[in-house]
Amino acid sequence: MTTNGTGRRPRGSYSKGRAKRAEILSEAVRVFADSGYRGGSLKEIADRVGLSQAGLLHHFTSKEQLLAEVLAERDAEDGARMFPADETLTGRQALDRMAGQVRHNTTVPGLVRLYATLSGEAVAEGHPAREPFVERYRELRALMARAVREAQDAGELPSDRDPVMLATALIAVMDGLQTQWLLEPDAVDMPAVFDTLLAALGLSGNTR
């Protein structure tokens, strides 16, 4: 590998590497959204970005790492869509946006299947996706707990409910609904169930 005399890659090479990595992630999101965990192949992703499979894996330590980062990319895209930087939302509106995310998930079954599969595997000690999932849940709990607190401060939720506990329960419902929906999509209406839960808590859950 050519360096700049300091043992480091030239800046241009580093920038190109980052750009190629971003391109791989972008195409991987599309492939797994269309084909799911088992149907989406590294070969198809590599072909789309003009690399061999070995060249693709040069940018990631393993297929599992690529899958974990695909989910992180998906989270970033979802976050930008649900919570635009130029918008200020109330706690209730933020929770309603989560209901909107449940609706959106029904349109990307491949990514939902990928998430469900990889999250189950990630509980194993030493799995490459374990730490990314731990961090994802920490951030999501913090986001939703903040929304719950704001809803409580506005008098939209009872103040005697612990925000972190409630946020954790809402996340658990979302994940559990995904599993049931994947197994029986015709029997489980994810958006309707989540809206019902929010309504039971005193929130509308009707953002489209």
The CATH class of the largest domain is identified as Mainly Alpha
Order of helices and strands: HHHHHHHHH
Overall structural domain count: 2
Mean of residue pLDDT?
Answer: 82
The description of the largest β-sheet is: none
Secondary structure topology:
Elements: H1 11-39, H2 42-49, H3 53-57, H4 63-82, H5 91-105, H6 109-121, H7 130-153, H8 163-183, H9 190-200
Helix pairs in contact: 1-2, 1-4, 1-6, 4-6, 5-7, 5-9, 6-8, 7-8
Q: What are the salient characteristics of this protein?
A:
Tetracycline Repressor, domain 2, Arc Repressor Mutant, subunit A, mainly alpha, 9 helices, 208 residues, 2 domains, single chain
Structure summary:
This protein is an all-alpha fold and 208 residues long.
Give a verbal description of the structure.
This protein is an all-alpha fold and 208 residues long. It folds into two domains: 51 residues, Orthogonal Bundle (Arc Repressor Mutant, subunit A), CATH 1.10.10; 138 residues, Tetracycline Repressor, domain 2, CATH 1.10.357. 70% of the residues lie in helices and 0% in strands. It contains nine helices and no strands. Helix 1 packs across helix 6, helix 6 crosses helix 8 and helix 7 packs across helix 8. It is globular, with a radius of gyration of 20 Å. This is TetR/AcrR family transcriptional regulator. It comes from Cryptosporangium japonicum. Keywords: DNA-binding, Repressor, Transcription, Transcription regulation. It holds the Pfam family TetR_C_6.
